[in-house]
Amino acid sequence: MSLLQVNEVTHSYENRTFFKWKNRSRKVLSDITFSIEEGTCLGILGTSGAGKSTLGKVLLGLQKPQYGQILFQGHDIYNADKHIRQKLRRDLQVVFQDSHSAVNPRMTAERIIAEPLENYEKLTLDEQKRAVIELLEKVGLGEKDLKKYPHQFSGGQLQRVNIARAIALKPKLIVLDESVSSLDMVTQTLILELLRELKEDFGLSYFFITHDIKAAYTISDTLGVLEKGELIEHYNSKKDFFTSEHPIVKEMRSSMLAEHPRFRSIGTRNSTL
Amino acid sequence: MGTEESKVLQVRDLHVQLKTKNGVTDLIQDINFELKTGKILGLIGESGCGKTITSMSILQLLNPKETTIEGSIMLKGQELNGLVEKEMRKIRGKDIAFIMQNPMNAFTPVFTIGHQFVETIRSHTNWNKKQATELAIEAMKQVNLPDPDKLLKYYPFQLSGGMLQRVMIAIAASLHPAIIIADEPTTALDVNNQKKVLRHLDKVRSEYGSAILLISHDLGVIAELADEVAVMQHGKIVEKADVFQLFDAPKHEYTKKLLNARSTLYLDEPVINLI
Hints:
The complex is a heterodimer. Chain A is α/β, with parallel strands linked by helices. Helices cover 33% and strands 24% of the residues of chain A. Chain B has a domain at 39-51 and 84-256: Rossmann fold, CATH 3.40.50. In chain B, a hairpin with a 2-residue loop joins strand 4 and strand 5 (78-79). Residues 266-275 of chain B have low confidence and may be disordered.
């Protein structure tokens, strides 16, 4: 059994007006089926407006799709009873793109990370503090950061705090919605490395939403391409992305920036010296 | 190359300090570089290393009450550092155009694009409205924007980020500036639009011979466009080299670290051919 099974999910957003006959609906996801195995990472690539984030919300249980079914560990997350759902929520976490708006600015890092622990684990204050320090150390921060407020962290550091919060309850699946996109290159690489380490340590699975081909390629095991709400391609081996003949995939590949000036297609070709 | 004329901008020993309650902090130190006609200088570094401060100090956009700028910034033989605001306003937009990171914030939301475009042109020339509009339409055609006369009537929020950034390049290029400072021109854009915007920037360079200071943290952008690259760390330029040299044989430790930070793709020759 796969960890997560998505069956024929279709969703559209309605534009409600006062007059019923003027209502318009816009299809954002149509007939999406895929599965994620335990301990693997599925990367989802797509342009803006392709429906990537909606799909992420649907998986998290935040947006009930109009049709279709999501099975997480064998349970349908939208039709399970309350305490099964509560148990499932524990195994399903999320890290968003904008780290600053994902945390409460009036809470210290300690309280931010302790929040899921308070809800699910019955720990004494001492144990809780120790758990938080351990989590901070796991993501490359330390005890000195306990009492800091979000504005005292840089974007990359705060993203680490978010990751610490996400792994606090040892989840099975983390949805990463453009989690590294707003960071600079060096920080991006460090966070990706951290995610890869955590994946190996805890046997985590990721649903990695991004528009950055290189980031997706670095971390994913399998790759999917979303375009206008349809999962147009799904590769079991990420290398297939580079040999695919699908016109949209081809266009995506052509929009990649060069790795080295040798491969450039815009600037002057030859060395200026 | 290397003659005095081809150097449109020379920055010598630029040193910017921030005045705070608790004393003075150095933001950037000993910055030396020059821009040559029709060449692109890439400036690369992590966030917070002083890239934007460098560009802002060239344009004298920093608040003089909070910062002190030392050193010389020579634009075609004219010293910019310490120039009075009135003179500086004539230079901004005409001789030095600035392309900002976030096109959504760079425009005023309450005026149409046409209004802002024409305003920019008219404040630097003594043309009438009709001539300015014609020039605006012409400039927008240059960057492949569809229906320019219609677009001029739109408000900034009606356009997508990529289109708006192209409008920004059109405005920057319309007065044929000697220098364009592009501060992270593609960071806020969708990946699919990045290359288009860079391509237009290159077109402006080749058509009007503008020198471009390309600021970015993305090595991909630098690899696509730059002729020369300056690597910045903690407010200092640690290495400056030709782009091919920098990628093939980086000298400074920090440059090596930056180059290693690229998520390394599976770069086989057949794959490259496909891309």
